[in-house]
Structure formats: C-alpha cells, structure tokens
Write a structure and sequence with these properties.
Layout lengths: L1 E4 L7 H8 L19 E4 L19 H18 L4 E6 L2 E5 L3 H22 L9 E6 L2 H12 L8 E4 L4 E5 L5 H15 L5 H10 L3 E4 L2 E4 L5 H9 L6 H5 L3 H6 L2 H17 L3 H11 L7 H8 L4 H13 L11
Parallel strand pairs: 2-3, 4-5, 5-7
Antiparallel strand pairs: 1-8, 3-4, 6-7, 8-9
Length: about 325
C-alpha cells in the first residue's frame, strides 16, 4: 500500500501552523531537568526507542552529553545573535530553529525523526560519530545572516547543505523539508560507508528529496531532477554507468554536476522500483574493497552481463517517467 508523500516535506507553513494550534506545548527543560536560561528555548528530548531503530547501535552519547552540548550552543547563539531560537534534542541530532517553538518541535518529529527511523531501518546501523546540529532558519534572510554569523559561510545553495567541518546541517527551511532529508543521508553515509563514492552518496541523498512511505519504508518519488535528465538522454549526453560510478569527487561535482546527480538519483530510483536498492547497498558494502565504484556489485544485483544494453533499458525507463508517477520495473 502506498501512502502519500510525507507531509513534513511538502506542507505549507500556514497549514503547519494551523495544525499546531490545537496541540500542547513542549517543556522548556532538557531531559536531565536542567533549565538553560537564555534567549533560546530548550525543548524536551522528543527522541524515543522506536521499534524501527531500537536494535540499532549508536555512538553512545548520554543525556548529559546532549545537555552539555545544548548549553554550549546556547552560549554561542547569545554571543552572535539576538534572534529567538528554540532547541529540540532529536537524537542523534540537535535541532535548532528560529520559527515558533511548536513548529521547530514538529519539524524535529515529522521530518528528522521520521527520516532517521526509516533510513536506519533499511540502510544504516551506526549513528554519526558526533552530536550534529540541524539549523533550520526560517527564511532566506535568516539563512544568509546566520550562516555568516555562526559559521563564516556564504552558502552556494539557496536550500541548505551539510558541513562536516562545522558538524552541522544548515537549512533554509522555507524552501521545504526535502533538502533536509537529503542532507540527513550524508552524515549517516559518512559513519557507515566512509569509502562511499560520490555517485551513491548523492544518488541516495537526492532520491529522498521527494519521499514518502510505502509499506512502512522510506520511498523516493519522481522529482524536479527528472526533466533535465530526460533532456540529457535525448541529447545523448549521459555517461556510461561505469564512467559515472568511477568519478572522483572533483569530476562528479564539477563536470556536468546536474546530469551526474540526476543519473545517480534515477539509478537508485530504478533499483528501488525493482526492489533491489537495499540488496545492492548491502552487496556493495560487502565488496567495497574489491569493487570501490560499486559497478561489479550493480552488475551482479541486476544480473545484467551487458551494461551498455542495460543503459538503453534504463534510459527507456527514465523516459517513461513523469513527475508524480511511477513505472513498474519488470
């Protein structure tokens, strides 16, 4: 049974605020019971031991670790900004936002927790090695201002990005939650598959930019990257899968970046629709030392001896897609 695209990724802010008006407010202390006085509201830890994730390993941070982390965040915020921020502990992350308190808490549960639980269910056994911050800035002006004040950055994207150096996911949340789910994938890849090549790191991340739930699992749907990929296919500008998968970071991110992202995404989409994405990920992890690009693992999982012929099949599949639809893979 297919559920609609998860509402946290697409719901307009006005509707979100309306839906929150009937809900109870959160606490203003951490789980350890320590009030953190400041211009920052600290909300209750809304994490739990979900049936989806309770058997998974973690980095082992205690509630005291999170409380200390929040106090340090609070001091840092007070030093650079007079804006009102709220903080929600949503393990393994800490979510900080300058929207109304209930909205920040709702985003922590409906987007962050929802995505983390389902990504760990299918792919990841280890949490990130550090407590990571998710900064949700309410609009473009706040995003630009606070990336400069807090991180000394001038973002190259209007949506958001993951900064390993700052141990932070930094978002203009007014653009929607899809980029947030994309960026959540990256620190989990970093912790679970440090040798992951760029194509899979970005392919898996971008697959879940537009996502929902199917039979209790996270599921990527067609999105805005599709028309550009279809144009590239018509122009015969899409590289072979061997070439794509062997690209280093410089080539992947700097040489026809848009096509590389889209090809990677829709290869993952094809595997997902075939019911083979998780199997491929596990096969690749197991063989990464002898198959660093994943090409041989892909060939094995697809049972495709002729990858040029497969590329033609895949291109026909992509050309048959429309935004908001799926095509059954035989």
């Amino acid at each position: 049974m297919t559920k609609p695209v998860h509402t946290a990724l697409t719901i307009p802010l006005a509707l979100l605020l309306l839906s929150l008006s009937c809900q109870r407010g959160g606490a203003v202390t951490s789980d350890a019971g320590t009030t953190v006085p400041s211009n920052t509201e600290v909300l209750v830890d809304v994490s739990d031991s979900s049936p989806l994730t309770r058997s998974r390993t973690s980095a082992g941070f205690t509630q005291a670790d999170f409380t200390r982390h929040v106090k340090a965040l609070n001091t840092r915020i007070k030093r650079v900004s007079s804006a009102e921020f709220s903080i929600v502990i949503q393990k393994p992350f800490v979510v900080i936002g300058d929207e109304p308190r209930k909205v920040v808490q709702q985003r922590a549960v409906d987007t962050v927790k929802w995505a983390v639980d389902r990504l760990k269910q299918d792919f990841f056994t280890r949490d990130p090695e550090h407590i990571l911050d998710i900064w949700l800035f309410k609009d473009e002006a706040s995003y630009k201002k606070h990336t400069r004040l807090l991180f000394g950055d001038s973002p190259s994207t209007p949506y958001g990005y993951y900064s390993p150096r700052h141990k932070a996911l930094i978002m203009n949340i007014a653009t929607g939650g899809g980029t947030l789910v994309h960026e959540i994938v990256h620190p989990f890849i970093e912790a679970n598959f440090p040798a992951c090549p760029p194509w899979l790191n970005e392919g898996l991340g971008s697959l879940y930019e537009q996502s929902g739930e199917v039979d209790g699992h996270i599921h990527g749907f067609t999105n805005w990257r599709l028309p550009g990929l279809q144009r590239a296919i018509r122009q015969k500008a899409v590289p072979s899968f061997k070439s794509l998968m062997e690209m280093d970071a410089n080539s992947f991110y700097n040489e026809d970046k848009g096509t590389n992202y889209a090809q990677s995404r829709y290869l993952c989409h094809y595997l997902q629709e075939k019911g083979a994405l998780v199997k491929f990920y596990q096969e690749f992890i197991a063989r990464q030392k002898t198959d660093p690009s994943g090409f041989k693992s892909l060939q094995k999982v697809l049972a495709e001896p002729d990858m040029d012929a497969f590329k033609t099949k895949w291109e026909n599949y992509v050309m048959g897609l429309r935004q908001g639809t799926t095509v059954t893979v035989e």
